[in-house]
Amino acid sequence: MSRNAHSPEPLPAQIVREYGPFDGADKIAGVTYDGHRVWAAAGAQMLAFDPASGRVERRLERAADAGTAFDGTYLYQIAEARIDKIDPATGDVLASIPAPGAGGDSGLAWAEGSLWVGQYRERKIHRIDPATGAVLRTIESNRFVTGVTWVDGDLWHATWEGDASELRHVDPDSGAVLERLAMPPDTFVSGLESDGAELFYCGGGSSGRVRAVRRPKTRAG
């Protein structure tokens, strides 16, 4: 895998809606989408809100420090140096596996039967076995990785470095940057998820917000 030395010029990210801040949530880390609700990691809890109304519908009292993912049935949540598999109906932790960054992990996504984990300062994205945590492959980035998502076979990751954030579409084999969306100044991305259609949901870190960003039309099909 190689870091990308050349990348396209960034396009301005189009923020179409902001959610929050939410009661009891000082910051937002990871985000995921279960097809109906957006789940957000908020420190000592996970909260789920309706993206149409913005109303919080669920709260799970679970440690939620970084990335969040959904496999179609279960939630996965980075908590300190582990990844918890959580039943969204009950909030029970069904299993835990070690996170590859041993506490330096950021984003989390589900795709192709695997978990994809961003390792923040190491600027890496790992594909791991969801049952054991074993690293199956690694993609390198040239920016800090703060969020990871897949949509229509495309791998995107968020960055937050040098007081600037971007969403980046990268080649999953080489790590080459294919598209860049630059967030407005002082608008940071702490987690990333696609709705499977035209939007990305972005955790807003210490702002306590989640932002919906329009996915580039050329890639939305």
TrEMBL record:
InterPro entries for this protein: WD40/YVTN_repeat-like_dom_sf
SUPFAM superfamilies, per database record: YWTD domain
MF-aspect GO terms: glutaminyl-peptide cyclotransferase activity
Name of the protein in its database record: Glutaminyl-peptide cyclotransferase
Record organism: Lysobacter firmicutimachus
Organismal lineage: Bacteria, Pseudomonadati, Pseudomonadota, Gammaproteobacteria, Lysobacterales
